[in-house]
Amino acid sequence: MHPLVIRGGLVATAFGALRCDIGIEGGRVVTLAEHIAGGDEVIDATGLLVLPGGVDAHCHIEEPRPDGGRSEESFVSASRAAFAGGTTSVVSFIPQWKGHGVWDRFEDYRARAATGMLDHAFHQIISDPTDAVMADEVPRLVAEGVRSLKVFLTYEPLHLNDAQYIRVLEAARKLGCLVTVHCENYDAIQWRTQRLLEAGRTGPKYHAWSRPAVVEREATHRAIALAELVDQPVEIFHVSCAEAAEEIARAQARGIRVWGETCPQYLTLTAAHMARPDGALFMCSPAPRDAEEHERLWGMIRAGTLNIISSDHCGFSAAVKVGADFSVIPNGIPGLAARLPLIFSEGVARGRITLEQFCALVSTNPAKLMGLYPRKGVIAPGSDADLVLWDPTRRVKLTNALMHHAVDNTPYEGMEVTGWPVATLRRGEVVMRDGVVMAQPGSGRYLPRGPYDMVRPRGITANGFGA
Ligand code: DUC
Ligand code: ZN
Ligand code: ZN
Question: What distance in angstroms lies between residue 312's CA and the mean position of ligand 3's atoms?
């Protein structure tokens, strides 16, 4: 007899959908069968889809800031938002400030993450790749299960120059880490910004003008070319335009190990949103483009060039998103709760992608690329019972209250979606039902990551020169 049975749903995975029952024991899926009799507790999923819990591999949560502050979103509020939207695992960021190491922040950040309810892993941001950091401290983090290094090619005060980026690639290759990259050209943005401000063009809409697609395309090309030089697998974060995605496609066609992520904001928002009186609430980097770009990106998703959809959740209350000019307004929008509903609605309900592709993009592929698969990202015997009971026909108008996050705004306010999570289970426990989140703070688990195949170098370097 199973302690818990999910009965009568259409179980969807990246490999296809199956009408079956799910038997759960000890927080894991133990049985998938046409009919499972009994069950101490039974959840009726008739008429619903049962999806693998969302894996959001790019979230800024309780992240320390250089000014001594911290993201408004705590691990507790982020957990509520995630469960409300059908996400059960996240990968968030530990920053490094120039002149500082990385080890001293790890224990503190890990303790903060442990206060929440989400299962969680970490990316380590590298902004100062000194010998001591790369040779002594990063290996200690890897031993603790941190397997991805995030670098910024733009952003004061985090950005790296090419020499520093190469150092990170080289260290990651030795240590068996993924490198994830924010691709925009720092100097180009600085130049554009200065000229715009000199011309008195200061409003949020000029954020988009300061960083057009070519700035992203150039940095994407460079990030991949240098990764190819070092023979280090990389993920290109938050691809906002087809011309950057085409750089990824070309490299993938040559066999380079590069993956592409995009986010709901680049499939639903446009630069015109930033021209509104509340335009600052739509400011993120890269900047949202236009409706034609949305269609091009969906094409790159269908083609398999863009393999992962994350939220890049980075919420700020409206009062924080003000500034003398666009260059000082903090970048980032909240999207943890809205990710699955928006992608299901714009993708599956509108016929742009299949249900299988949806599962792959929001759960299976991020779990694989982060080294969390098959514990996460799939509904299969032995996997954690992270499940979402999903009503594919329910129509919902998005509001900030439905997002359950800490900040007072969502850029998706008023948008209508088709498809909505009815219940979320994390390791077999119902943590959200009908919009009510009921998980116990402190119940989230750290997901240490060991070596995994997706970040294995190809063993091919330019001119055969070994790295
Ligand atoms: N862009 C990022 O790269 N990080 C956080 C927020 C944003 O808009
Ligand atoms: Zn970024
Ligand atoms: Zn980010």
Answer: 5
pLDDT tens digits, 137-160: 999 999 999 999 999 999 988 999
Helix axes 213-230, 186-198, angle to 10 degrees: 160
Of the candidates 237, 353, 361, the one whose C-alpha atom is nearest the C-alpha of residue 298 is 353
Ligand 1 within 6 A of CB of 314: yes
- Cβ neighbour number for residue 25 with a 10 Å cutoff: 15
Of 152, 186, 331, which is best to mutate to test ligand 1, by the most ligand atoms within 8 angstroms of its C-beta?
331
Instruction: Measure the N-to-C terminal CA separation of the chain; round to a whole number of Å.
Output: 55
**What are the strands, taking DSSP E only, across 166-324?**
178-182, 234-236, 258-262, 306-309
- The pLDDT, as a whole number, for residue 461 is 82
Q: Which residues in the chain land under pLDDT 70? A: 466-467
- Record the tokens describing residue 220, joined without a space: 């994407």
Q: Across the chain, which distance is largest between two alpha carbons, in Å?
A: 72
For residues 282 and 330, give the distance between their C-alpha atoms in angstroms, rounded to a whole number. Answer: 11
Residues forming beta bridges with residue 222, ordered by sequence position: none
Residues 24, 16: Cα–Cα separation, whole Å: 20
Q: 3-state DSSP: the chain helix, strand, coil percent, rounded to 5?
A: 35, 25, 40
Instruction: Determine the pLDDT at residue 227.
Output: 98
Distance from C-alpha of 364 to C-alpha of 412, rounded to nearest angstrom: 25
Ligand 1 contact via 330 beta carbon (within 6 Å)? no
Which domains are seen in the chain, by residue range? Answer: 60-372 (3.20.20.140)
Q: How far is CA 185 from the centre of its chain?
A: 21
Is the Cβ–Cβ distance between 109 and 71 less than 8 Å? no
Tell which residue, 208, 192, 140, 90, has the closest CA to residue 446.
Answer: 90
pTM of the model: 0.98
d(CA 248, CA 465): 24
For tokens 């993708």, the residue is: 347
Name the phi and psi angles at 127, rounded to 5.
Answer: -115, -5
CB of 313 within 6 A of ligand 1: the answer is: no
| pLDDT for 324 | 87
Pick left, alpha or beta for residue 442 (phi over 0 → left; psi -120 to 50 → alpha; otherwise beta).
left
- Long-range residue pairs from 192-201, CB within 8 A, at least 24 positions apart, any chain: 193/326, 193/327, 196/326, 197/325, 197/327
Long-range contacts of 325-328 (CB under 8 A, 24+ apart): 325/197, 325/202, 325/203, 325/206, 326/193, 326/196, 326/202, 326/203, 326/204, 326/205, 326/206, 326/207, 326/210, 326/283, 327/193, 327/197, 327/210
